[in-house]
Amino acid sequence: MPEMHRTKQARDRYNFLWEWANPVKFMWFSGLALPWLVAATVLTMAIGLIWGFFFTPEAANFGSSVKIIYVHVPSAFMAISAWFMMLVASLIWLIRRHHVSALAAKAAAPVGTVMTVIALITGAIWGEPMWGTYWAWDPRLTSFLILFLFYLGYMALWGAIEDPDTAADLTSVLAVVGSVFAFLSRYAVNFWNQGLHQGATLSLDQEENIANVYWLPLLFAMAGFGLLFVTLVFIRTRTEIRKRRTHALELRERMADA
């Protein structure tokens, strides 16, 4: 009997987790969470960016250009993390066929694309005074550019296919394939020694990790960018759910008129 009770508890917790894939529950929860997310996003980004840009010293080897890390590092991290979020959501769609997960992946793509563009632009701005060039076919830079093209292809595929379930299936497969380049974007420097791009800015290795004077505001900036991503994905997913409902109602009306 105790074993059966534990099994029932585990099953109840499992079912409770998947209940949040219900569009009605998601709309309720996201609507409740969004005001708090917006407030936390504004607060953490303001602390991170203001502290980083105005209250940190110039670096010995980088001068004031080091302060671009408060935009470049969080945006690059979120560009990669966004794709992995899309991968998880896509796998849930392929395995469980929960529409909210497919719509969340679709909603995350434009946000991840913008983060990738910001990372590429700020990286080029930072690279010119450091390397003497805005661009080099460095392993990490190249894989990051390919990741950007995967983002564009993912969004184009969603727009090219009329049936939403078929679009979700094909884009989910693309998300799995693109995850290889998201992984390479993060760890390319560890795989290949050649290339201009430096190692990780944040590291458990004290010799590689940046000084605390830069590290602490960077943590706030990264938290702010992460909260911004979650906030925008919630907003866009709610929009996608409404669009899907509208599409379903339009189809129902057409069938009724036929």
**Termini, distance in Å?**
57 Å
Pattern of helices and strands: HHHHHHH
Into which percent range does the helicity of residues fall?
over 70%
Please indicate the count of domains.
1
Q: Outline the biggest β-sheet.
A: none
Q: Tell me the structural class.
A: mainly alpha
The value of Rg in angstroms is 21 Å
Instruction: Report the CATH topology name.
Output: Four Helix Bundle (Hemerythrin (Met), subunit A)
Number of strands: 0
Name the shape in a single word.
globular
Low-confidence stretches: 202-209
How much of the sequence lies in strands comes to under 5%
Total number of helices: 7
User: Quick check: average pLDDT?
Assistant: 82
CATH class: Mainly Alpha
CATH architecture: Up-down Bundle
Q: Can you walk me through this structure?
A:
- It is a single chain.
- The protein has 258 residues and is mainly α.
- It has a single domain, classed as Four Helix Bundle (Hemerythrin (Met), subunit A).
- Helices cover 80% and strands 0% of the residues.
- It has seven helices and no strands.
- It has helices spanning 2-19, 23-54, 69-96, 99-131, 139-160, 164-191, 212-257.
- Helix 3 (69-96) packs antiparallel against helix 4 (99-131).
- The chain is globular and about 70 Å long.
- Mean pLDDT is 82; it is low at 202-209.
